[in-house]
Amino acid sequence: MIRKFLYIVLFIGLSLTLKGQTSARQQLDKYQDSLVLLGKETINNTNEAERYKATYKMVKILVKALKVPGSFNYGFDSLKTVTIQRSPDNKFKTFTWHVMNDDGSYRYYGTIQMNSPQGLKLFPLVDNTAVLKRPQDTVLTNDKWYGSQYYKIIPVVNSARQPYYVLLGWKGNTPKSTKKVIEILYFKNNKAYFGLPVFDGNKEYAGKNRIIFEYSRQASMILNYNPQEGTIVFDHLAAPDPKLKDKPELYGPDLSYDGLKLLNGRWRYVADLPLKNAPSENDNQYNDPKKPAKGKSERLVP
């Protein structure tokens, strides 16, 4: 009798759990459908005010979605206008996207969702790019963020005194130039910080809190991570003429590659790397400087 009673209790409990999971999934599906429609508006609406109106709605709906139990494990696979990255150690996810202004500049939006058993824990990202005078040298918080659209997370949590994550990001900039960013994220005292001087070996990068590349909007740039080599690989950017070295909006790849290699928790500059990334099914998503740029497609891919 007791055993039968326990089976009944277990069955009821399991049924309620599955029902709750199904309900949460249906709720998240509905939120995703709304985000997909609004995301298309942020990209395709020809009216700038309407693009921002859609973005403000997106922010509210995304927060509601992330409040749903189990949302951390929900993929949002249909939401193509938002770049979503999960840290390899499963500690957090980043949600980042952009709005293009009529003048060809950009503003960025996003949040960090922590994988917290205590419930929803978010670090909203507030783009502060417009007022940052020396972004390479500044340590920032999530409410004073150097906006970017992140497409790669590299954890450095075992070999560094302060565990941190490297974020690789795309940053549309102006009608003339694009930027890419090597950002450093770490968590301390229940806060999110951006920027840490972990770069060595090159006077241009040493001591900087983040590395920012700027190049012609008509060009493409590789910035990617090779886990087999423990190296961040990037195109060497150069001016078309030495007399134009002060005009980064004219820079482009010169078909050589430099990198940053992880050594004892720090990233040491290495010049003239052979590009030998392992083949990947995602190779066609990355910029190849030997091929012509694909117009606006770079807006959403690294």
Can you offer a commentary on this structure?
The chain has 302 residues and is α+β, with helices and mostly antiparallel strands. It folds into 2 domains: 1-80; 82-295, no CATH class. The protein is built from 2 helices and 15 strands. The protein has helices at 2-44, 48-67, and strands spanning 83-86, 92-100, 106-114, 122-126, 140-141, 149-156, 164-172, 177-188, 191-194, 199-200, 211-216, 223-226, 231-238, 252-263, 266-270. The strands form 3 sheets. Strands 5, 6, 7, 8, 9 and 11 form a 6-stranded antiparallel β-sheet that branches. It has a 5-stranded mixed β-sheet with strand order 10-15-14-13-12, with no helix packed on it. Helix 1 packs antiparallel against helix 2. The radius of gyration is 22 Å and the shape is globular. The N and C termini lie far apart (63 Å). 30% of the residues are buried. Residues 5-20 and 277-302 have low confidence and may be disordered.
